[in-house]
Amino acid sequence: MNTHTTRGLSLLAALLSLTTAPSAQTSVPSSHADSAPAGHGVATDAHPWVVVPMQARDPVNYITNLRDGQKLESPFVLKFGLTRQGLASISEEVQGAGHHHLLINRDLPLDFTKPLPFNDQYLHFGKGQMEAVLNLKPGTYRLRMLLANHKHIPYFIYSPAITVQVTQQRASVKPESLLRKGVSLLTPQPGDVVKRPFRVQMHASGLNISHTQIRDKASGHFQLLMKGPNGAETLDFNHGHTEAWVKPPAGTYQLRLQYVNNATLQVSHETPWQTLTVQ
Q1: CA–CA gap between residue 183 and residue 202 (Å, rounded)
Q2: Which of 118, 144, 166, 275 has the most CB atoms around it within 10 Å of its CB?
Q3: Under a CB-based contact definition with an 8 Å cutoff, are residues 165 and 68 in contact?
Q4: What domains appear along the chain, each with residue ranges and CATH number?
Q5: CA–CA dist 146, 104 (Å, integer)
Q6: Cα distances (angstroms) measured from residue 146 to each of 85, 107, 183
Q7: Residue 149 φ/ψ, nearest 5 degrees
Q8: pTM, whole model, 2 decimals?
Q9: What is the per-residue pLDDT across 20-50, written as a single tens digit (0 to 9) for each?
């Protein structure tokens, strides 16, 4: 196994946490709030459309944009998600929430009671980042996500390991050029026809997602606007959730995902409206 890593990985990860002050845009309605954490340290959202379906498993990390065995050139963007659990920055303890770590060519720790180390094979995303720019040398790498608390002590929440092959390191591509601040809906896609309940996967690029207990201007949370046959609804994910299962009444909806700054409660980034048909 090739274990080459680069000195710049930690710097690149830090670049992703940089945020600008949000522009004065939309104030956040406070009509929907999250409920207290439920079992397994999982918080559920109070809005009646947000459900935890029977098919949902225990919380798990996952990599959203790469597949096992993929060949690629560096630098490249690695995106990661989390189901049934919220994100929070490490500035203070938040029950039932954590932050991502990327393990490069490392197995899961033998002792889950000790903090994860800080080096180029354990990348920490303590501000609530959902992606990283990796600038790896050519070689084969095993990648795995692992969630930990504010003290970097891991939960039993991790992704399957995937192996990728870096075929070339492109000196002409500046890693920072791959950073694009914004939010996106990974699922559903525009024009999709879905059955209830359906999965909503949210992603933030160059922005930090955190439980609203963290009132930091460098942190924010998702909210989903849904305009349907019976009016408009706002689904706030105040616990730092990046994924949800939603069960609205059947009909045609317009969806928009927004990023809400935790300190100012202003919307700084949002997606275009997209159409969704719910059966």
Answers
A1: 7
A2: 166
A3: no
A4: 9-26+31-178 (2.60.40.10), 182-278 (2.60.40.10)
A5: 11
A6: 12, 11, 22
A7: -85, -170
A8: 0.84
A9: 333 333 333 333 333 223 333 444 557 999 9
